[in-house]
């Protein structure tokens, strides 16, 4: 199994987190710790770029759900993007996809996650 690699970048109101590699019980703590540190503002939306995450087990899913719960508690949201076949199937069979939006592309997820533009008069 390739090692888990995580990266993030900030956009206005959105933190995009890129997950590369498999997420399972062996690296759950690393995943959870990284997410705590990467989220600059707890009210920001979080977009997970999952294009290079071929596998996610229940412990990784738990971390995603806890992140979503924390985001909601602070007024933010979580969006999942570009999920590969196995994680996408897990989101479907567990019902996660009914509660956390899943997008085909990161661009679509970021567009949905961005706060609405407010014009000054």
Automatic annotation (TrEMBL):
Which residue range or ranges hold the STAS domain? 4-113
Q: Name one GO molecular function term.
A: anti-sigma factor antagonist activity
Concerning InterPro entries, the annotation shows: Anti-sigma_ant (IPR003658), STAS_dom (IPR002645), STAS_dom_sf (IPR036513)
Pfam families, alphabetized: STAS (PF01740)
The record's NCBIfam families line, in alphabetical order, gives: ant_ant_sig
Which family is it part of?
Belongs to the anti-sigma-factor antagonist family.
Full protein name:
Anti-sigma factor antagonist
Lineage, top ranks: Bacteria, Bacillati, Actinomycetota, Actinomycetes, Streptosporangiales
